[in-house]
Amino acid sequence: MLGKLGKSLAKTMKKLAGMTIVDEEVVKEVIKDIQRALIQADVNIKLVFKLSKSIEERALNEEPPKGVTPKEHIIRIVYEEMVKLVGETPKPLKIDKKPYKILFIGLQGSGKTTTIGKLSRHLQKKGLNTAIVCTDTWRPAAFDQLKQLTQEINIPVYGEPENKNPLEIANKGLEKFKDYDVIIFDTAGRHKEEKHLLEEMEQLSTAIKPDETILVIDGTIGQQAKEQARAFSQSTPVGSIIVTKLDGSAKGGGALSAVAETGAPIKFIGTGEKLEDFEVFDPERFISRLLGMGDIRSLLEKAEEIAEEQEVSEEAVDAILTGRFTLREMKSQFEMMGKMGPLQQVINMIPGLDKLPKNAPDATEEKIKKYLTIMDSMTEYELDHPEAIKHSRIKRIARGSGTRNEDVKELLKYYKVTKKAMKGLGRRNRGGPMGQLMRQFLR
Ligand code: GDP
Predict the structure, then answer these.
(1) In this predicted model, which residue has the larger pLDDT, 435 or 110?
(2) Which residues bind GTP (predicted)?
(3) Would you say domain 4-85 falls under CATH 3.40.190.10?
């Protein structure tokens, strides 16, 4: 995330962690490293100096709490001050009305359309019936893009590419989707003049009366984000901001800090082009990951959720980590995926282990559901002994689960490839820190 910025900050923290003596000189050196990284990421120079001063003052004057080494104390201070730089923990998006109307605004190219797809997916996963209305009359392709993005996830999109009146489209969409939980309105991101664009936003806002207005900002513009946030919020009351494209450019750091400075809450961030590359923005979680401290907190939270529902047995995790992997473990893994997000995403959160082997197959949610249905029709023996599933068993399982023989065969093939991939993963991590971590968290 954030490309070079993340790398250099993580390097600094690692260097700090490796030092034996931590004195004033070390503190100053660490601060210099951080300054350099942040300035390169286009963080406003005043903010950088403010941050350096706080770190220096605290590091040199505060006594470490009992049981905390001076080094740990400084790591903590850097972490805390960096968290302050990107803002306070925003309130989550609360859908407390039906239909809950969300107005999306932002300049063309900011990633608005993609982000609408991502948010609709996010809400759908929470069980909310979501629909989209495209009022962009300037870029007729926007409607097609939205349809394409959401086709796979079955989210309806309303639009009239021929109609030049965005207010009319908005009203029709409102009527059409009035029974939905959430309606998201896409708007134009370009006009001949910016003034007209802002006017249109204002009119749409008056007509739709949104429960939330979200501004999308391209993270790669760095600290210019501040001006953009100001310009939009002057014409339309902006409730929250989504900063996109934080996957590549270091400048995202500048954008995040600039937006945080305006006081507007950043609720989500975009971290890639795919629908899944989207997350709730949490400054603490974000900074701990940026500093290479691993996203331990988010993993913890997810694991807690799972523990509550008691869906994953510790045995299954153990089995995966030690290389035993039968259909039973795969079934358990699928159930776990439903709760933690795709495996790749889970793995990304574990420090030092950020890539699944390349040949690990991709399982779409739809497929996972089908596979789970198939596995429900298997006997205990079959789950433990996948190799015994041959012709007649395949037929019986297909019949029992209402699927075709080919589906069962596909599942078995998926199992084989995954097993191979899991073997590599297990070997690397058996008894290692990742194994311990997973076990601890999934208990
Ligand atoms: P719009 O004009 O604001 O509706 O922007 P689009 O949604 O069409 O996005 C513009 C480009 O940015 C597209 O190529 C997207 O794939 C890309 N994009 C959007 N969000 C992200 C992101 O979080 N990361 C990356 N790398 N690309 C993104």
Answers:
(1) 110
(2) 106-113, 186-190, 244-247
(3) no
